[in-house]
């Protein structure tokens, strides 16, 4: 009988611990730092001035907002998924902004070479 009692206590304790851990995970705050810093980086590189980058920057902001709303409603998995989308869109906005800046620099370099060739004739 003693062995049964110990086993029952161990099972109950394990179940209680699992319930506490699950509740703790459900109420853990949503970690938005990566998405927020990605959006900030996109803004700093001028994503708002590049049409395609601007679109993805706006999407990232909307997705971050949606993630916060989902988290507030207790939909943690959906909120985390939306945060990942926001982070990806922010990164894409940064990449598109940098690509646009590099294209502008390349065009300026080509024009400079053309001008030098014209001057040397």
Descriptive report:
By secondary structure, this protein is mostly helical. Helices cover 85% and strands 0% of the residues. α2 (33-44) packs antiparallel against α3, α2 (33-44) runs parallel beside α4 (76-119) and α3 runs antiparallel to α4 (76-119). The N and C termini lie far apart (105 Å). 21% of the residues are buried.
Residues in helices, as a percent range = over 70%
Rounded radius of gyration (Å): 26 Å
H/E series, N to C? HHHH
What kind of oligomer do you see?
Answer: single chain
Structure classification: mainly alpha
* Total beta-strand segments: 0
Strand content: under 5%
User: Termini separation (Å)?
Assistant: 105 Å
What is the helix tally?
4
Low-confidence stretches: 1-5, 15-24
What is the strand and helix layout of this fold?
Elements: H1 2-26, H2 33-44, H3 51-72, H4 76-119
């Amino acid at each position: 009988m003693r062995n049964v009692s110990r086993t029952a206590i161990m099972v109950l304790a394990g179940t209680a611990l699992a319930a506490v851990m699950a509740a703790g995970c459900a109420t853990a705050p949503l970690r938005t730092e990566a998405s927020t810093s990605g959006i900030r980086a996109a803004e700093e590189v001028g994503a708002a001035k590049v049409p395609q980058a601007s679109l993805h920057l706006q999407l990232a902001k909307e997705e971050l907002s949606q993630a916060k709303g989902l988290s507030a409603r207790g939909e943690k998995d959906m909120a985390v998924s939306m945060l990942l989308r926001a982070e990806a869109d922010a990164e894409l906005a940064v990449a598109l902004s940098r690509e646009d800046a590099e294209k502008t620099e390349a065009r300026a370099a080509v024009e400079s070479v053309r001008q030098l060739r014209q001057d040397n004739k």
